[in-house]
Structures are given as structure tokens and as C-alpha cells.
Amino acid sequence: MAFISKDFRSPGEAWVKTDEGWERLKVLECGGKRKRHNSEGSSYQMLASDSQDEEEEGAIMPPHYHITIRCTREIAGFNGLSEAVKRLDFRRSVRDRKRFHYICAFLLLVSNKGIASLPGSAQRQLLQMVEEVASHVNDSQQHPNVLRGLALKLEQIVNQENQKCWGKPLGSTYLWKEHMATIKRIQRVASQIEIREPDPKAKPKLHELPEECVREIILCIADHRDLESAAKAWDTMAKLVSEQRIWRELTRFHFNQRQIHTILDLDKFKQMGEIKDWKQIYHQLRRTYGVNDDYQFAEVLALCRSCCCLFWPSDGHPCIVDQSPDYKQRLEEAGGQLALAQPVPPAQFLKYFSL
User: Fold this and answer.
1) Contact at 8 Å (CB) between 24 and 14?
2) Which helix (H) or strand (E) holds 99?
């Protein structure tokens, strides 16, 4: 049976001119209001007017992106990284503390694969996201090490590209001039950022807290590298980090009982008797099984198995289960297993695109 495609007489996509250039209307539907050019002049107007704010708020869809998991003869889809980043509202999500580390991990992975191999629109989007990270770090005075890592990676990319094609980067010369200007601004912010001391009158200070409170703070740390860095900052902190309870709780957080018992059955740990060095056990487990890096993210993108849609769990998404009562009933009869949302870490997210 022949496959009938969309009518060639279709009017096509609706485009809107925003302050960042022309963009498709379906991309701007997600993530809230955007600014667009006024046709009568150079001023800007909001997509939703002040008198229609309440009506527009109900019509705005949460950030989401439908992806093609598998191409068939009937369904041939292409997942665009630039469109996905816009529809999932990555740039504004940088200032969300629950999504900050996820966005930065995604930017580092893309940088390792090579930004220069991406389309021009995707390159511009990613650099704008890094610039947003620089602005957020400068304003919040938090995570300067993340910004320095991104700035160092951008410098490496520029040096690699300058060695290609007789000392000139491949691609549009005008586009790379824009990229170089953006990278210089990012590096300027990263080099000039200084962590300001909070209000000196604020009480109590960290060193004035009792050991019980400091211990509870340390127990919330999920990375052994942060524990080791904290031990170098303060003598009391070093004393607490050396406690067996800290490493025991960290071990139980990252590994299950079966993995822990497997390591404890080894001869060198049997010889310890009742005195167990939980720090050594943790590092042995880490070398054997690896540490799940997804625990560092407060919020991870999710994939709806019903409609193949990527979305942020805190915002939700328009799902076929909610729109079709018949499908919802069939899903409940089948046990509802297909409606479960699958977490999508940054590495898995990049696999949906041809990079």
C-alpha cells in the first residue's frame, strides 16, 4: 500500500520574527512568552498582550519535545538538536537550580563531541546557553568551577579549529566571528569572577555551628571528591569526614546490598573482622561497579513511553493518555506499565541526535 504524505499544497510552517531572529511558531509555543518584532518599527511586543495574559497563560504549553525513537517505512523522522534545546527551554532552565547541573553536563558532553560539527543554529544556541551559565554564576556566586571548566573547553575547541584549513576554522566566517565574540565574553566573565563574602553580620557562621549540624550537612554530600575537598578546608570538617558513618552512608547511597555483600565477601575484607574501613569499601565498589552520576542531578529529563515525548517532570507535558480516554482505558487494562516515564540522562539525550 502506497504511503500518502502531507498535501504538497499545505501552507507550511508559521514563522515569527523574535529578538533572536526568525523562529517557527510551534517552537515558541513551549516555555512561556517570547518577544517578537513589531511590524511597524524596531520595538518589541510580547506574544501575549497585557489584556490577554490570563487567556494566554492557559494556552501556553509546558516545555516538551516529541522525538522519533525508530524510523520505519511509514514514519521517517529527524530529531533536531537546536529545536529540541529551544522546545525544552534549556536556556532559561540554566537559572533553575534543579536543572543547572543537568544543563552543564549536557554542554560538556556536546563540547567533547565537537561543537564545530553541529549546524550553525545549534552552535549559536549552545554558546548562548554557556553565556547564560556565565551570567548566572556571576549573579548567584555559585559553581564558578563549572564555568571555568566550560570556558577551558571552549578555548580548546577554538585552538583545535584554528589548526584546521590553513589556520582558519571551517564554516561561515561571519558565524565564527560571532562565536569568537561570545567566547571572549564568556572567558572574560570566568576570569573576572570573584566569590564575595556574604554579609559579615550574618549569624551564625559555618564554623560556629555545633558538630552535629556540620555532620548533617556532610551527610548530604553525594560525591566523594567533595568530601575530600571539604576535609582540606577546616580541621573540624576533616575530623568529621574521617568518621566511618560518613563513608558508610555514602556507600549505601550509591550501591545496593548485593553489591556491598559481594565486596565484603572478599578475603581482604574478611580479614578486617568487625572493623570495616568503609572508605576503602566505597572506593573498591566504585572501581568495580562505577558510580551512578545521575544522582548529582536534582531533576532529569524524562521520556514518556506513551507518546515518545521528552519533558521536565516538574512541568509535565500534553500526553495522549490525557487526551484520549479510549487509549487511557486500554492502557489501564494492560497494567499501565507503558505510561511510566523513563529518566533520560545527558548522555542518553545526545543519542537521540546524529552527532
Assistant:
1) yes
2) none
Tell me the C-alpha distance between 316 and 64, whole Å: 8
**Within 10 A of 285 (CB to CB), how many other CB atoms are there?**
19
Local structure of 336: helix, strand or coil: coil
Q: Closest Cα to residue 110, out of 92, 96, 95, 90? A: 90
Q: How confident is the model at residue 135 (pLDDT cuts 50, 70, 90)?
A: very high
CA distances from 129 to 151, 152, 263, 270, 296 (A): 12, 15, 42, 51, 20
Q: Which residues pair with 66 in a beta bridge?
A: 309
Residue 64 cell numbers, joined: 516538551
Residue 351 makes CB contacts below 8 A (sequence gap 6+) with: none
Question: What predicted TM-score, i.e. pTM, was given to this entire model?
Answer: 0.72
- Do residues 285 and 251 make contact, with C-beta atoms less than 8 angstroms apart? yes
Give the number of C-alpha atoms closer than 13 A to the C-alpha of residue 163, restricted to the C-beta side.
6
* Higher pLDDT, residue 58 or 125: 125
Q: Determine the Cα–Cα distance for residues 178 and 21; give it in Å rounded to an integer.
A: 14
3-state secondary structure of 24: strand
Q: How far apart are CA 218 and CA 205, in angstroms?
A: 16
Supply the DSSP symbol for 62: P
CA distance 27 to 69: 20
> Backbone phi, then psi, for 78, in 5-degree steps?
-135, 130
Please state, as a whole number, how many other Cβ atoms lie within 10 Å of the Cβ of residue 171.
18
CA nearest to 246, candidates 268, 287, 217: 217
Q: Are 128 and 117 in contact (CB under 8 A)?
A: no
Grid cell in block for residue 195: 566569590
Give the Cα separation of 89 and 344 in Å (integer). 16
What integer pLDDT is reported at residue 58 of this predicted model?
A: 43
43, 35 contact by CB (below 8 A): no
Asked if residue 118 lies in contact with residue 126, where contact means CB atoms within 8 angstroms, the answer is yes
**Average pLDDT for 189-202:** 80
Given a cut of 50, whether residue 55 has pLDDT beyond it is: no
134 and 177 Cβ atoms separated by less than 8 Å: no
- Cross-strand partners of 136: none
